[in-house]
């Protein structure tokens, strides 16, 4: 049954994760709320780990900075100073908070490493951080959890920018976060900024619009793009292989998302090998100008579910059958003298050997056109070795 976000009365986890892209306006939150939201996104076991690591980070901060007893001892750089409680975070212009990076900053704190928070001032006079949220959260932790201070009583260095052009600031945010001393943006961070850039800023950048279209396809089929650092790659509908999506055209991405909506059935994440194999399959369909419509995708998904449960897990039925077929083929080649005796078969759970097996299986049971085998391996399974 096809799972779509529009058909579910209660939002799935994927729907909840994707909802942060729904609003066409900025989402303004306090440092405390930003920490709370990021913290609560982890499961209980991970939160316990965070608690332990944070306690250790605070202890290490005190050990390295025994001279810091008041906020004045922080010896921060001088620029414009703003009370900590007056600085809010424009979360649509920042990557998702990496709690473990914040704790590392607390752990290694040195005043010379603290750069001013980059802010713009909105029409209500709020100081909204568009870069520097990890530094801001670090300072919030030191102020509230180590020095036990009221955030209205401490001053934080900021650089005010007069521009309110969010598209320009967003572009600068991506460009600036690649230098030494700052946490570089991961591909998922850039992808999310591009989606926000189109939906909030109205960006017409072709690459950004492509990312937004791919995000839309994920939302349509109740899936969501994520990464290991967010702690939710195990959740139903999770796609932790953004790199596989980025290799595809927007059309191929829609094909893949529809296929995954069938095989995951809203009950599990998309598997790594599933993304690799089926992403490459649809890429080859596009390259071969094969007509892929919804019926094609639905029939393909049903067939794979019937044959091997749509399971591309390295220890699952698909790879076990493909491995056995490869060993059988290898033995035949040795018997015919095409492979030297004594050479052991070396099977790989990758498209090199998986794709020839999948295509042979589809040529046997799928009543539609499939791409030609372009694998560099001469492996060709015998009909008796297929499902």
Can you put this structure into words, describing what you see?
It is built from 14 helices and eight strands. The protein is elongated and about 80 Å long. The chain starts with 12 loop residues before the first helix and ends in a 22-residue tail after the last helix. The protein has a domain at 25-164. The relative contact order is 0.09. Helices cover 48% and strands 8% of the residues. Helix 8 (206-220) runs parallel beside helix 10 (250-264). The protein has a six-stranded mixed β-sheet with strand order 1-3-5-4-6-2. A two-stranded parallel sheet has the order 7-8. It is α/β, with parallel strands linked by helices. The chain has helices at 13-18, 31-40, 44-64, 99-107, 133-146, 166-176, 187-199, 206-220, 242-246, 250-264, 272-287, 294-308, 317-335, 351-365, and strands at residues 28-29, 80-83, 87-90, 117-121, 127-131, 155-161, 224-225, 238-239.
Relevant terms:
single chain; 387 residues; alpha/beta; six-stranded mixed beta sheet; two-stranded parallel ribbon; 8 strands
User: Uncertain segments of ≥5 residues (pLDDT<50)?
Assistant: 3-9
Query: Which percent band covers the strand fraction?
Result: 5-15%
Instruction: Give the fraction of residues assigned to helices.
Output: 40-55%
- Number of alpha- plus pi-helical segments: 14
Q: What is the end-to-end distance?
A: 24 Å
Q: Which geometry do the CA atoms define?
A: elongated
Q: Cα-atom Rg, whole angstroms? A: 26 Å
Q: Which class best fits the helix and strand makeup?
A: alpha/beta
Order of SSEs = HEHHEEHEEHEHHHEEHHHHHH
Largest sheet: 6 strands, mixed
Count of DSSP E strands?
Answer: 8
Q: Mean pLDDT, rounded to whole units?
A: 90
